[in-house]
Amino acid sequence: MKIELHCHLDGSLNLAFVDEMLRAQGMQYEREELQKRLEAPAECGSLTEYLERFDLPLLCLQTKEGLVRAAYELVRDVSAEGVKYIEVRFAPMLSTNRGLTCEEVIACVVEGLKKGEKEFGVFAQAIVCAMRHHSLEQNMAMLYHARKFVGKGVCALDLAGDESAFPTRQFRELFAKAKEWGIPFTIHSGECGSVENVREALELGAKRLGHGIALEKSAELRKMCQEKQIGIEMCPTSNLQTKAVKDLKQYPLQQFLDEGLLVSIHTDNRTVSGTTLQKEQSYFGEEVIRQCTLNAIETAFTTEEIKNELRGHL
Ligand SMILES: [Zn+2]
Predict the structure, then answer these.
(1) 10 Å Cβ neighbour count for 29?
(2) Per residue in 234-280, pLDDT tens?
(3) How far is the centre of ligand 1, averaged over its atoms, from the C-alpha of 268 (Å)?
């Protein structure tokens, strides 16, 4: 039984789906070429280069049909590897390039997730991502629309994008608003070295951190995470590709676990990173996987009732 808490919709579209959606727009690629354009190389130059792999997927997420199907097929795909609970994240504003409203985009993703949930018996919820390269106003407007779906398919807010170019402090107001509205949040933090972004996220009240690799540089912040029971969503393959870590021997997951941090293992982007949750877990031993699964349940943005049901699967 697996729990997926950190999975981006646009980075996790299956090849057949992307191929079909692009063909409908008059774009045709050989399978190999398509794969090359979607999958980041094992050694990516930087996070920025990694983020380029999202250009084609976003073209597939500009229509109602594309959004519903993408969400539905993701639930189908993860159910095949034993995932029983998934939080799928996506940035609604990135799907409004061809006229869909932010509200329509969210409604479609939620519809696809619900459809998948029913059909495949996987609890599926959405996390809406604010984007670092969008203005505070744009992100506030997105949150305003997302608010209507909270508790009805949307479970939380996230902040994604280029962390080195746009520090978290620029979005203080956004998270203050989320807090005011009772919307929990996770924040991509410390993926590329910035301890300051981790500190900021914790001060803002993030319940979880995306990646959190930079925590290895600060015993003080690790202690804070342990005391506040903060979830640390770690994604090994993605972290290697973006050079957040040099190699797996230096991956701080075990250290974090030993210090009592609520670490869990996730994929980030199934297609862009060419991975599955099975593969991410395979880097670790049975005990670590079990503890990480328990931590994922503990820190999931869901009810105690569902958490208990998930624990029952273990
Ligand atoms: Zn991510």
Answers:
(1) 17
(2) 999 999 988 888 899 999 999 999 999 999 999 999 999 999 999 99
(3) 5
Cross-strand partners of 234: 265
Task: State the distance from the centre of ligand 1 to the C-alpha of 119, rounded, in angstroms.
Answer: 26
Crossing angle for the helix pair 102-120 and 136-147, to the nearest 10 degrees: 50
Q: Is 83 exposed, middle or buried (0-12, 13-18, 19+ CB in 10 A)?
A: buried
Q: pLDDT for 95-132, tens place per residue?
A: 999 999 999 999 999 999 999 999 999 999 999 999 99
123-131 and 83-90 strand pairing: parallel
SS3 state at 204: helix
Least Cα distance to 104 among 114, 118, 116, 93 occurs for 93
Q: Which residues pair with 2 in a beta bridge?
A: 83
Distance in Å, CA 189 to ligand 1 centroid: 10
Pick the CATH number of 2-312 from 3.40.630.30, 3.10.150.10, 3.20.20.140, 3.40.50.620: 3.20.20.140
Whether the per-residue pLDDT at 43 is higher than 80: the answer is no
Query: What residue segments make up the domains of the chain, in order of their start?
Result: 2-312
Nearest to 46 by CA among 163, 157, 198: 163
| Residues tagged active-site | 191
CA of 190 to the centre of ligand 1 (A): 11
Length, in residues, of the chain: 314
